[in-house]
């Protein structure tokens, strides 16, 4: 290289200051370095920088940089390498056309997309795309079991004035308005299907269930007030006369109850199959039963 370059280099090497020439100086953030104004340079340095930018050819610039690099000490080399590393960083995905960038991000998991949102504003815009999230939602399959047949089946019905009560295999009892057909109330408590219902009063209802129990319901509160235990199998039928009730069951028995006292009065046996129907005379002196034993 020509001698004028050497003299120029020696002219503009500033004296070292122990306080400012430490390794800590190289840790100044790159953003701070980039914003240093040319106005802070000495006049000679400004002239040299102007020549480098506007007068020299590429060949001359390369020669100058070569000599400049050779004159650097290790700490200055570290600073330059760190600065160049910062300058060479590029957001390759962010620089791509949006459609192509979205295609790349579509291969990320949901967790990956959430992390990508934190990289930069550009990535946040891409990773928040409705197109991406719509695809992710379609990838998630939620299996909702659909019964092959309805899980309800009305098994019995009874009326009292303007109210209708129905018992169902879905373990519920529903109270309806007979004039409007509007469902007024749903009673839940039985653990199996309800096979027979009968009103005791306007506001008290009796029900027999496959769970072997008979329940009395208060229609004002919708709660069970009494439970009758005694049958060993499904309760299939009921009949009320005053405060007395007869029930028939799959256990081949018919039972007479005092409803007012929740008391089992008598058990009637003799059938060899389930008792499907029961009735009682007006004076409660005769009970009639029908069963599957013919």
TrEMBL record:
The name this protein goes by in its record: F-box domain-containing protein
WD repeat start-end pairs: 161-186, 187-227, 228-267, 268-294
Protein biosynthesis as UniProt keyword: no
Top-level taxon of the source organism: Eukaryota
Chain's gene name: 106067666
Key words of the record: Repeat, WD repeat
Keyword NADP: no
Coiled-coil boundaries: none
Occurrences of domain F-box (ranges): 90-136
Organism per entry: Biomphalaria glabrata
């Amino acid at each position: 290289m020509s001698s004028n370059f050497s003299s120029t280099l020696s002219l503009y090497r500033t004296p070292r200051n122990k306080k400012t020439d430490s390794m800590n100086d190289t840790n100044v953030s790159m953003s701070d370095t980039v914003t240093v104004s040319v106005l802070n340079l000495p006049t000679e340095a400004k002239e040299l920088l102007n020549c480098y930018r506007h007068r020299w050819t590429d060949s001359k610039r390369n020669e100058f940089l070569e000599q400049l690099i050779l004159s650097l000490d290790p700490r200055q080399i570290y600073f330059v390498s760190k600065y160049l590393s910062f300058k060479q960083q590029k957001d390759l995905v962010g620089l791509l056309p949006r459609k192509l960038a979205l295609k790349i991000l579509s291969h990320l998991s949901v967790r990956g997309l959430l992390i990508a949102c934190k990289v930069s504003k550009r990535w946040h815009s891409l990773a928040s795309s409705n197109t991406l999230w719509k695809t992710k939602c379609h990838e998630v399959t939620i299996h909702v079991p659909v019964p092959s047949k309805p899980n309800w089946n009305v098994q019995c019905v009874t009326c009292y004035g303007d109210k209708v009560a129905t018992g169902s295999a879905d373990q519920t009892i529903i109270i309806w308005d007979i004039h409007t057909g509007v469902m007024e109330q749903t009673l839940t408590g039985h653990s199996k299907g309800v096979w027979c219902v009968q009103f005791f009063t306007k506001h008290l209802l009796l029900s027999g269930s496959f769970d072997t129990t008979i329940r009395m319901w208060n229609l004002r509160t919708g709660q069970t007030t009494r439970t009758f235990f005694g049958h060993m199998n499904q309760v299939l039928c009921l009949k009320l006369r005053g405060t007395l009730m007869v029930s028939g069951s799959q256990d081949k028995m018919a039972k007479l109850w005092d409803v007012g006292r929740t008391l089992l009065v008598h058990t009637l046996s003799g059938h060899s199959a389930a008792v499907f129907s029961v009735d009682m005379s007006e004076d409660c002196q005769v009970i009639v039963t029908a069963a599957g034993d013919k």
